[in-house]
Amino acid sequence: MLDEASTRTIDDALLTRIDAWWRAANYLSVGQIYLLDNPLLREPLRAEHVKPRLLGHWGTSPGQNFLYAHLNRAIVQRDLDMIYLSGPGHGGPSLVSAAWLDGTYSEVYSNVGDDEEGLRELFRQFSFPGGIPSHVAPETPGSIHEGGELGYVLSHAYGAAFDNPGLIVAACVGDGEAETGPLATAWHSNKFLNPGTDGAVLPILHLNGYKIANPTVLARIPKRELEYLMVGNGYTPYWFEAGFDDEDHLSIHRRFAQLLDHALDQIASAQRDYRAGEYDHRPDWPMIIFKTPKGWTGPREVDGHLVENTYRAHQVPMSAVRGNEEYTRLLEQWMRSYRPEELFDDDGRLRADLRELSPSGPRRMSANPHANGGVLTRDLRLPDFRDHGVDVPVPGGAVAEPTRVLGEWLAGVIRENPSNFLIMGPDETASNRLSAAVSVSGKRWLGETLPTDDSLSPDGRVLEMLSEHQCQGWLEGYLLTGRHGLFNCYEAFIHIIDAMFNQHAKWLKVTREIPWRAPIPSLNYLLSSHVWRQDHNGFSHQDPGFIDHVVNKKADVIRVYLPPDANTLLSTYDHCLRSRDYVNVVVAGKQPGPQWLTMDEAVAHCTRGIGIWEWASTDGGEGEPDVVLACAGDVPTVETLAAVDLMRRHLPQLRVRVINVVDLMRLQDEGEHPHGLSDREFDALFTTDKPVVFAYHGYPWLIHRLTYRRTNHDNIHVRGYKEEGTTTTPFDMVMLNDLDRYHLVMDVIDRVPGLAAEQAVLRQRMADARLRARQYTREHGTDIPEVAEWAWPDARARGLPARTGEDTAADFEAAPGPVQGERTDG
């Protein structure tokens, strides 16, 4: 029951205007789906006025139009800073209608005016060649959530609310969408929302009963059961039901206005009391269960079949209207039921008193700057990454865990940006060696806290939930509203969010072509615990294929980096956090390994993105080499250099050129990717006719795909992951996939003209070395000393450590509790 003292009296005149605005939005929604011309029905509807192809979704639109009308009223009366996220699939007609009615649409699209001619263009462009999509898209003013991307509206909403203390995000959840795993998990985002420093999310479950062809689960469970579900998720649910009887519209509007006011009062009270220090526990935030008929106010019946409040209302209630006189008559009757002559003036503009119902300026949900986050973006204050670099006296002369080094720098980023930067991760931040970042502020948590817990804080700048979907969705919402962050994850499990990455990459691609959309901070991934170091997790944790998935997207948007050591990782991530409108995928190891480049060398190498390592090469820097050994990734780099060390000893006459790749997209042609090398540059590095043996972090065919146009492509032989692996030692893992140093030497012998016959004995020794290493591993459970204790010659000569073998207990930093262990779920 509502607290009567908290409700406000809303006079009938205002409710009448709200109802008229709702009718106008419904009219525009129908018009967008059906009409090419005659937008205000100034004449009887004829076949040529109707689109030949009817594409769109009507079912969710009237309910969302109703919500939008009432949220507008609340914004005006309370001076709220609010955005609206449309979760139901393809609610495009509703949000486009609202943006046109409040004037934003005509402001950003001058060809769609606010008069009858503009209305004609608004209708024509919808789901029409060269026009706009039927879903809520980047082209839709006020949107940060793409309609039809089912399951993520709450994740995006909470991401937008983090560190936005004055913002309320109204998140309309489709009841079909509510059946998805990500959405079912997203209800628990309220356990991470700090009432003191964050904004608020008002979830509205749009319970209209049907998906495309089936009823929805939540619409067919008892009311009490659904309410208990929401209470169990940590909300105070408020039930609203309308449209199923003959109740007059004013009464319906009055009931909802009172309920909405009550929910907003509850949000304001929770934030006020928490910020005043009157309590420190998590509030029971309100949410609304909004039950209305599918296709409310639309045709009740078509061809003898019920439409309203059935699945038939989901998309287009009447298809093939053009040329069907009965359907044309029914469409005109439907549209005239909204009484457009009462809503628009002689010029086709929305009536002045109805325009006044919308907020003004940036208070309009379609013009709110939070929904165009680039206009609010502030640059991060980044500490100098050089101050955190590893001292590398000679190549291979130091040992470090790259992500641990990065974690120390990220701790400084958090200190310098206490309300503008977040790290997301699915319970893997410590396992990925970023504990220094956790130590700065702790991990965000507003659930129950026990004395045995570690590093939990309502103000934490690291958000961990064992759901990659939530981490991705939160970060997207945070970035889209103008802030910065990164998502750290085990490499194999990042695939869980493949579809979400797809949508975000496509969003970025489209927004680059929309002048009024300002660039937003890039989406930054840090993938660690990667394919080559799954010593105890085994085959289930081995999959480097996210890179392949990412590379499918538009070249203007994606970037892939494989830094070989800590200093290159620092330089790479500094670049990523400064960038805009990209998806940056960085794969880096967390295990102790040799460090190759000084900080100055690392910066130069990262700036180039690809380069010859002269200190490792034996071609003297003059003339062409006999063979090129290329590498991309930390483990492939170690194996390549170890192979070069073997060749220096056994094939001293061989001219070897070593190339390391940090920026994977440098391999692609400059016409295909902005970072791509010209043919001239590529040929200078890889030659036009010499054999190339390429040791790559991921699936080998990606390198062929990136280089297939190159002059020397036929001579490029790639070693990489080929779906072989088990619970084993690090070196045995690379041997299983033929990426090991001995096999690379064998590849060189096989491919350099004349060597196969001359060096048959050496090749046999390399094959024997593989067998010896395998046997040692099976007997001792660890890698053979000649591998585990290997060091680059310059470091070896100085007696410097460069251990690359297995971890010991000492490799795990002392930290409270079991959080340093690795996630082992498959």
Low-confidence runs of at least 5 consecutive residues: 1-7, 804-826
Task: Give the total of domains.
Answer: 3
Taking all residues together, what is the mean pLDDT?
93
Label the structural class. Answer: alpha/beta
- Helical stretch count? 27
- CATH T-level fold name of the largest domain: Rossmann fold
Report Rg. 31 Å
Oligomeric organization of the protein chains: single chain
Assign the CATH superfamily of the largest domain.
Answer: Thiamin diphosphate (ThDP)-binding fold, Pyr/PP domains
Report strand order across the widest sheet: 12-9-13-14-16-15
Strand content: 5-15%
Major sheet description:
6 strands, parallel
In CATH terms, what is the architecture of the largest domain? 3-Layer(aba) Sandwich
- Percent helix, as a range, is 25-40%
Separation of the first and last Cα atoms = 46 Å
Enzyme class: lyase
Organism: Jiangella alba
Pfam families: XFP, XFP_C, XFP_N
InterPro entries: Phosphoketolase, THDP-binding, Transketo_C/PFOR_II, Xul5P/Fru6P_PKetolase, Xul5P/Fru6P_PKetolase_C, Xul5P/Fru6P_PKetolase_CS, Xul5P/Fru6P_PKetolase_N
